[in-house]
Amino acid sequence: MKNTIFIFTFLCMILSCKAQVVGTLEQFEECSNRPNSDDGCPDLENITYVKDTNNRLDQFVGTWKGSANGKQYEIKLEKKTNYKFFPESATSWDRIIGRILIKDSSGNIIYNSMNKSDKETYFSGDNFQHRGYVMSFVGNYKCLESGSVFIETRLNNPNEMKLFYSQDKDGLITSSSQCPNFDTFVPLLPIEVMILTKQ
């Protein structure tokens, strides 16, 4: 009986090890840069875990502060390993989840996601593009505030990080009832490069 239990346990361990197929962030970055990226990456279709094998995400982890256009920014970035946004997702990723605190020039809080759960921050990483890491951000969605955030630490000073926000514009429609001040709406994140310092 003990031998049967041992063999069963051993087989379960082997099957569970084979069940997870690991790929790397570098593989998926290379895949997205292929000339035929529209055809997908058939060599990566069976991967169930996209791992940060070289710890490239670690450079972003921490609290960063900076200012732009009269606003003060505090951005907290955390690395999550083997993370799935939804339990039914086929693939888990090592990724960065971000939280943001923004104050106006008088110190009034105009945006705060510091106490939100990982799934409610709406600020999460995707993958690398060369040295930069791409994250998606959704702020005031009724005013069409969503887009990509590009972050990159400086080569000569890893305690400084460049941040650039590219707001989605194509095919988006809103109305004055959803966003009354749409014509004068200013995005929460700066659309020019902002420098942040690690705290």
Automatic annotation (TrEMBL):
This is DUF6705 domain-containing protein. It comes from the Bacteria. Residues 1-143 form the DUF6705 domain. InterPro entries: DUF6705 (IPR046551). Keywords: Signal. Residues 1-19 form the signal peptide. The keyword Acetylation does not apply.
